[in-house]
Amino acid sequence: PKKKDIRDYNDADMARLLEQWEKDDDIEEGDLPEHKRPAAPIDFSKIDPGKPESILKLTKKGKTLMMFVTVSGNPTEKETEEITSLWQGGLFNANYDVQRFIVGSNRAIFMLRDGGYAWEIKDFLVNQERCADVTLEGQVYPGKGADENEKVKNKTKPEKAKKKKDAEKKSSNSIKEDNRATKQREEL
């Protein structure tokens, strides 16, 4: 190809030149975006079969993770901002890198760069006086600030879902029996 003077390059020429430079660069593993980094190997000897959280800790290590935190009482958004700011400061002093985003008048998201520490942070948060609950990986953990009705409600959610499924199975069985009876009548 004919060589162009650099002053005659257009945007397409500059883009091709940039691609050539990036292709030859060796990008360090830490500079890659999270979804392009290789997964860290999991040491199965550290997994405790009695604690499913230990599996989650190892699989989330080094990955970004978010947890929802609810502030108890009926705080304004400004109060929620102040309370969660104190919690974030306490976590920062304990060397946990946490970012905080307010998403409602009483809710905040805590974003962690390393999800391996999520359960330690959850333990800290649920022991705070004004913490109603912490939601981590779909599991709701009641906090110290939750009233007794909320604590009972959070513990009984799986049981209610199981009872509902059993009721649906019973109703579907009765429908099947009804259908069988009508088929027999039609055959006669």
Automatic annotation (TrEMBL):
Region (Disordered): 22-44, 140-188
Localization, UniProt: Endoplasmic reticulum
Keyword NAD found: no
GO molecular function, one term: low-density lipoprotein particle receptor binding
Biased composition (Basic and acidic residues): 145-188
An individual GO BP term: protein folding
Keywords, comma-separated and alphabetical: Chaperone, Endoplasmic reticulum, Signal, Wnt signaling pathway
Residue stretches of biased makeup (Acidic residues): 22-31
Gene Ontology annotations for the cellular component aspect, listed alphabetically: endoplasmic reticulum
Pfam families: Mesd
Family of the protein in this entry: Belongs to the MESD family.
Name listed for the protein in its UniProt record: LRP chaperone MESD
Organism of derivation: Campylorhamphus procurvoides
Phylogenetic placement of the source organism: Eukaryota, Metazoa, Chordata, Craniata, Vertebrata
